[in-house]
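User: These chains co-purify. Model them together.
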Amino acid sequence: METTNIMIVGVGGQGSLLASKLLGHLFLNEGYDVKVSEVHGMSQRGGSVVTYVRFGDKVYSPIIDKGEADYIVSFELLEAARWLPWLKKGGRIVTNTQTIDPMPVITGAAEYPENLVEKMKALGVEVDAMDCLALAEAAGSVKAVNIVLLGRLSHYFSIPEERWIASLTANVPAKLLDINKKAFQSGKGEN
Amino acid sequence: MKELMLGNKAVARGLYEAGVCFISSYPGTPSTEVTEEAVKFDDIYCEWAPNEKVALESAFGASLAGRRAFAAQKHVGLNVAADPLYTMSYTGVNAGLVICVADDAGMHSSQNEQDSRHHAIASKVPMLEPSDSAEAYEFAKLAFSLSEEYDTPVLLKMCTRVSHSQSLVETGERTVPEKAYEKDIAKYVMMPGNAKKRHPIVEERTKKLKEYAETAMVNRVEMGGTEIGIITASTSYQYVKEVFGDSVSILKLGMSFPMPEKLIRDFAAKVDRLYVVEELDPVIEDHVRSLGLKVQGKELLPLVDEFSQNLIRKAFGKEVSEGPAVSDPIPARPPVMCAGCPHRGLFYSLKKNNCTVLGDIGCYTLGAVPPLGAIEMTLCMGASIGAVHGFNKILGSKSEKKTVAVIGDSTFMHSGMTGLANVAYNQSNSTVIILDNSITGMTGHQQNPTTGLNIKGDPAGRVDLTALCKAMGIERVRVVDPYDLAACDQALKEELAAEEPSVIISRRPCALLKQVKHNAPLFVDTDKCIGCKSCMKIGCPAISMKEKKAKVDETLCVGCNVCSQLCPKDAFTSTGKEA
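Assistant: Joint model of the two components:
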């Protein structure tokens, strides 16, 4: 099987590490070779962060390059647009519609672009955009945005739902499992 | 069972199985998690040392005592530890001694992208270079065998993409080899008479290691046709495989010093065109050229930044198809000081007083970015204090009244202390600000000698910064709370005006520490807010302007109240919500 490439992008501190951990666990259990590449150190302080998850029969490079991503899972809208050139032709964006102003926008040195979802769609890109923050809050915790996104991502894989739930169970604290299961379902159910 | 493991964790697993008993390190991205993972094994004694030199010297002592020992650091950390390293090459070891160095091509979190392989060559210490987690694990174990067999410390070179990528590792059991300590003055006392006798032993050892390199399992040939041959190492190997698969022949070098000769000649003879693909400096390429072989490397590939599969595709004339892009400019999202960061208030005062700030290495380096823009120099660990001394000695009264050094608590213990000793000794009229946030912040919260806790978070000895500075001969030492802007302002003015060296300790724990209690988030009374943007001067990520009024992001705000001290209309109010 050819390698599948998933990028998880967002703002440092948003919790993308759990998402990549869960995906790594899932694909490993499905019997694939897996590589996950993370960012540590200075880039975590509120900067733009990216995690690469790759799986297939044999994975070499730990990173995903421009034009290679099958999926870009984004925690924040501007970050989806920033990493768009990394998307493969026919690839799909799964994004939270939440916006977080970066410092140049806060200081007035730059503007946050408007209507990014429509602009990405106008380029012929498949975009799943949803208010994951609201869905996570409804599920019981604003911190479950990552699981809402994964719920949505699960749509596009033939891996049975119980396998996703098994990886979820293995990677979140037991007391938060119900909230995260709800978050997963609400992400999955949204169209 | 195969496990998905971070490269750094795989090293730690290898150390455990190799029977390592002692680890001393100083944190530094991307090396930090090696030690953080190792401490999870109860059978290994682990500690954070004040700096890399002390760490390596301690590991050497443990090796001398007869137990396998280890020290980890980032590339620039090895510069600090270079002094003991170069002479340890002469003494050799008793029990195995392995030194991990993690390079950062691409400078994800570093001040330069130096190539650590030069240290191996210059110190004549063998270096192994894994390309993924499985190799990181295997090479860590192999390094100890080589260390004892060849009586040498061994360098294990990681890089960001190997350290911080997870891939599959199959693990084994731990065995602990033990050696007895025996007095051996001729081997371990490096005074000229003895060192003269040890140097030829080092040269002889390198010859033997070269022979080992000819047939070592870590140097392997993967034949895939005779047209193109690529010599590569580390993460570059993975990019080469990603692009070419099995369609080219590859000589993968797992040992970057010493390198084999015959193996390379034989490989070169089997292919029509020979290339070297390596990040940063042409270390392999120069070696191949020195053998009189025709090779291409840095004519095609850059000397700077990390590689990727597309970079290699382009260099070899292959097609690259990039994805689409929206036409709007995408604003950059640089890292920023966190909401509630205790450094922010102090930096605001520095900016307000138009200070010349000579900086250091840590989160507070972010004081250099807009809107604070308050730092004018950052070089290496501890340099702020050395630099402020020299700066003031030259400019005298022109700089003494407005120039300061800023340095974190951990960085001060690492190598700022000696700079302060120089200020006290040679009496420059310098003001040093120690930003004491009670933790090593940037690398992800490691304890240090000032925190009173050890690597496991258990109670430990504690260095009292005030007493220390006074003992060094600095008479004027005072503590301020950086959340109190008026107090910062006053301390700064008074200490800059003083006609003698002084230290200001800006003390408040990092807002991200779990034990730090946050206040209720603030909100802006839009009736009071006049949109003057005074609060925007501190560059807090929780404050933005919405419809010409300041707005606080309640999910980020920790209620530090620094913004409210700048508001002329008292528009900031506590939400009273539980933090």
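The first strand of chain A starts at residue 4 and ends at 11.
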